[in-house]
From TrEMBL:
This is ABC transporter permease subunit. Its main location: membrane. It comes from Streptomyces xinghaiensis. Keywords: Cell membrane, Membrane, Transmembrane, Transmembrane helix, Transport. Belongs to the binding-protein-dependent transport system permease family. Pfam families: BPD_transp_1 (PF00528), CarboxypepD_reg (PF13620). Residues 97-455 form the ABC transmembrane type-1 domain. The chain crosses the membrane at residues 41-63, 101-121, 133-154, 335-356, 377-395, 435-456. InterPro entries: Ig-like_fold, MetI-like, MetI-like_sf, UgpAE/MalFG_permease. PROSITE patterns: ABC_TM1 (PS50928).
Amino acid sequence: MSVTSPPGAAAPGTTEGTAPLRKADGAVPPGRRRAARRRRLTAVLFLLPALLLLGALVAYPILFTIGRSLFDASGSRFVGADNYAEMFRDPATLTAIRNSTVWVVVAPALLTGLGLVLAVLTEKIRWATAFKLLMFMPMAISFLAAGIIFRVVYEQDPQRGVLNAVAVGVHDVFDESTGYPTARARDGEILEKRPDGSYRSAETVSPGGVLNLPLVGVPPKDLPADAEPARTAAAAPAAGDELRGVVWIDFTPGGGGEPDRVDPAERGLPGMTVEAVRNGEVAGTATTAADGSYRFTGLAPGGYELRLPAKNFAEPYGGVAWLGPALITPAIIGAYLWIWTGFAMVLIAAGLSAMPRDVLEAARMDGAGEWQIFRRITVPLLAPVLAVVFVTLVINVMKVFDLVYIIAPGPVQQEASVLAMQMWLVSFGGGNDQGLGSALGVLLLLTVTPAMIFNIRRFRRSQP
């Protein structure tokens, strides 16, 4: 049975008013082939500038770095894999690998956790937008400026470092003892220094007696503001079985005065601990007043040595050595958290806002508590967002350089070094070995690549 087209109808394989799409043998007409080639050529021409830029800024540096890593420091002699072997023999590089591992394990996990908690909590407050703005604001500060800020924050001197000012303030609330690290006894017959750093009276004194204890070596500027003249207290006799005296600075400003005697212009040392010792045991403890006076009451009859314990001469508490070898890496990670917590919070909050609310309401109606909702509903539904945030931060911390370079002082910079910084130090920071530096760059690329591939695949799966 044959089918004929009605008069005026288009033939099979054609559309009205157009040429046949394909010939009878299935070949594409030359006109359509030329049109397809023109479209491909147009696409290539539009992509060519971007491809050239990508090749010049990404592909060529990668290939050049890989090739350069196979040559020696001067670049004239082929050494093969020697630079890669040297990396794992160099203690500085091993330290950098260890620190980079700490960064990868600690920083992204802490940031993701903090971002998640803050994103959930901001949904419960009224001024959530303002809070998110404040948390995100450190992202607007350059790493150079942030490093300078935290270099000052971590200063050892409590007069400059904010953290140590707080630490010293809290410490002094619980331990208000006054120390005079420069104080010492003048060579004489009243006080003798002991091996443990304390001072003892050269003679014994009994209840009802007076013994004044002179010290020198305390500059007038270091005396407490409430220190009063010791003359009146030194002249007062002991009452009954009281044992008393003064601890004073045996130095007259401007000169003059008599050694081992309390002169009118000489002031007492407040806050000094004085112990009455008998037969090697402490029988009583007193603390000097503003005029340096001390007194013991209720002592049993007999002779006592007076001791100034070594803690009177200890250095005052100066805070925590944040920039020391033990804490330098955690301190820099703390600065990094301050900068990037807002980034993690905003991304997770965006995922939280897209989460179906009917699931949460259904859970609440079923009697689930907030902790159960958070642990069993919120976190599982946010898992894709949390994974993207975590992997993005892993890629970022692998490249951290400027914070480490700025915050870490010179003597401990090697203790805080990471792979990116070690690569710069070896290549340009005094090492002048661009062969080894290129090998470190290749190692850094290899460590970052798996995380990048994971993120790209996840982005592709998330597309509709």
